[in-house]
Write a structure and sequence with these properties.
- With about 200 residues, the chain is an all-alpha fold.
- The chain has one domain (about 10-190).
- Helices cover about 65% and strands about 0% of the residues.
- The chain has a two-stranded antiparallel ribbon with strand order 1-2.
- Strand 1 (about 40) and strand 2 form a beta hairpin.
Amino acid sequence: MAKGFLENHGHRARFFYMNILFATMAFLASLFAGALGASEGEGDDAQSRYEVCALAGATADVTCPTLGADDTTGQTLFDIGVATAVLNALLLIWSIVGHYHYGAEILEKGQFLLSILNIGLFAGLVGNLNSVEDILEDVNIENNVLFSGVNPYVIAVVGLSAGVLDFVLFNSLNLWYFKTRCDLSYKPSGDYGSGN
């Protein structure tokens, strides 16, 4: 049944898939950056959390552990999160425009590389988070202001898992099951009609 549907709608189905994928990745990255970039303090003293709070070392009494002078991990994580969100937002716009065949062939050919790029960006988030000693201690997760509301570590792991799943599952299906049925250049034959 999937093959029959894809005879006439493969390109459209592929681009709807990319819409959902890029929207999800942009949402996860925005949520991640938002958790780190939320305001800490009040009024004129308010700063982004990643600028004043360490990622580890929180206790029941200290919800914003003092950030070391040389600690730039929070800034790096925030920058990667913002870059990932912006990239995926732009890719979402491109994939929406691709429904009308504008730049669609380039996006189709580059989808494999874009999947790898998303994996790399979310792996960068997970790797930087893992470089922080004691970040996953229960007392830190329960009390650290950076983990209030949403857990950036969980978001990064979900994004990385989604990227790996996309890379393996979509590309496997596209190469071995759907073959070229999801490509813009595919021309159906037989009883399924013509047109994409």
